[in-house]
Design goal:
Number of domains: 2
Shape: globular
Number of helices: 8
Radius of gyration: 20 Å
CATH superfamily of the largest domain: Aldolase class I
Structural class: alpha/beta
CATH topology of the largest domain: TIM Barrel
Bound molecules: iron/sulfur cluster
CATH class of the largest domain: Alpha Beta
Helix content: 10-25%
Distance between the termini: 34 Å
Number of strands: 19
């Protein structure tokens, strides 16, 4: 893939995948917004644009390059303790009012934000990850927008024997075409499911809920290891009925789907709201377990108990975690050493 052009102080644009021509129109097929790109202009995400008769992307790049345990994504049932080389291309398809990473994710949409990405070299990134026995994780912004980088990383991983897993932390806002193209590149994904009703989802993100639900089902159908995260936000999705409704959506993916309840902290345009009380998070865990979810986790509120994996058969404590890290793994193979029951996940 060659550079298609570089803006001064800005991104290096490259040819994009996932678009089609409709007469003289050029339509993006990556996310359900289905932008018709204006002549020599960007789509709603601002990191894909039309140049002449083709679509280009700015996201063959990363503004981040650091090492984190896989628990930080969070992925708790995927190779515990795996180091990950974490990358993030600027850009997002959502405009979440509480986004922790708005200076990165809202590049191009908030006019004052500078471009902070540096061109990515997939072969070098793969070599660095392989040397540490690590995975590569795309996180912080929306990795679905980095479709071309994901494909290139996967291709490089295959060339090196397929030992480096590619992971995403995603909002799940993808078309079916994008999902079918990209899911085979991915070993595991944590998807944010903000809530279970469309009105609240639109209020929080600016986008409809249905495509996210379709992506959750689609990832599962493709055999990608799937975990789900939900921030509990005061007055939006933290009432018992709302929590139960979201838990039922996760339960529909399987009772052993890990569900991460995320403590909301005042950020960005929701800085005036209070943080989620720990007692509310504990109640939410109990509600979800009563409904049948077997692995419900809380970070930043309930201490190590919120991060512990227990055997759904005999209740033995199997995996212990500190803040965003593994501290003890008592699994025997893929099962409980006490009763032998297998635990859902990818363990080696
Ligand atoms: S990825 Fe960007 S350009 Fe493509 S449809 Fe979505 S918002 Fe529009």
């Amino acid at each position: 893939m060659s550079d298609a052009g570089q803006d001064a102080g800005g991104p290096s644009w490259r040819p994009a995948v996932l678009w089609h021509r409709d007469g003289g129109r050029l339509v993006c097929d990556l996310c359900p917004s289905a932008c018709v790109l204006p002549a020599d202009g960007p789509g709603a995400c601002r990191v894909r644009r039309r140049r002449g008769g083709v679509l280009e992307t700015a996201t063959f790049a990363s503004a981040v390059r650091h090492w984190q345990p896989v628990e930080r994504k969070p992925l708790y049932h995927f190779r515990p303790g795996l180091p990950t080389l974490t990358l993030a291309a600027p850009g997002c398809t959502f405009r979440c009012d509480y986004c922790l990473n708005a200076p990165l994710s809202q590049y191009g949409r908030d006019a004052d934000l500078p471009w902070t990405g540096a061109a990515a070299d997939p072969a070098a990134l793969l070599a660095a990850a392989a040397a540490r026995g690590a995975g590569i994780a795309l996180s912080y912004s929306e990795p679905g927008l980095a479709a071309e980088l994901t494909l290139a990383l996967h291709q490089a991983a295959q060339a090196q024997g397929g030992a480096v897993p590619i992971l995403w932390k995603s909002n799940g806002y993808l078309t079916r075409a994008a999902l079918d193209l990209l899911a085979p590149c991915l070993a595991a994904v944590n998807v944010d499911l903000k809530c279970a009703d469309d009105a609240s989802h639109r209020r929080l993100t600016g986008a409809p809920l249905a495509p996210v639900l379709a992506t959750l089902e689609g990832l599962r159908g493709h055999g990608v290891w799937l975990e789900v995260s939900t921030p509990l936000i005061h007055g939006i999705n933290d009432r018992p009925a709302a929590i139960r409704a979201t838990a039922r959506r996760v339960l529909a993916l399987g009772p052993e789907t890990p569900w991460h309840l995320v403590r909301f902290l005042p950020e960005h345009r929701l800085a005036a709201l209070p943080p989620t009380p720990p007692a509310l998070l504990a109640d939410a865990v109990a509600m979800a377990r009563d409904l049948g979810l077997r692995h419900v986790y809380v970070e930043r509120a309930l201490g190590d108990a919120g991060r512990r994996t227990c055997c759904p058969g005999c209740g033995a404590a199997l995996i212990e975690r500190g803040r965003w890290r593994l501290t003890d793994n008592r699994l025997h193979g893929d099962g409980c050493p006490a009763c032998g029951r297998p635990l859902a996940g990818v363990w080696s």
